[in-house]
Amino acid sequence: MGIVLSIADLLVLLTIVVSVSRAVRNGQPRGFGPQLLSICITVALLIFALVSFTAAAGLAESSSLGQGVLFVFLVVTAIVARLSWVAVP
Q1: Is residue 89 part of a domain?
Q2: CB 60 within 8 A of CB 6
Q3: Which range marks the domain in which residue 17 is found?
Q4: What percent of the chain stands above pLDDT 90?
Q5: Cα–Cα distance between 88 and 64 in angstroms, integer?
Q6: Domain count of the chain?
Q7: Which of 57, 65, 75, 82 has its CA 20 to 30 A from that of 88?
Q8: pTM to 2 decimals?
Q9: What is the mean pLDDT of residues 39-47?
Q10: Nearest to 11 by CA among 83, 77, 84, 87
Q11: Does residue 16 lie in a domain region?
Q12: Is 24 inside any structural domain?
């Protein structure tokens, strides 16, 4: 179960990084300043993903309660990240 949670955590974190980077890029006008902002946000999110992955690895190897909490958190986070990809009419 720990390996499955670690893989799911990695996929969810990559989805978050891509979703936020995409939202920032689509919401900004073209130019060097907004592009630099997008790059900075992407780097910050990658650092966040690395720290989160390390913390989740500890939870994935802990008790069943920790694994359950991590699983629920990953499912909710994946749903929210997926909602950001839905086209707004």
Answers
A1: no
A2: yes
A3: 2-83
A4: 0
A5: 39
A6: 1
A7: 75
A8: 0.68
A9: 83
A10: 77
A11: yes
A12: yes
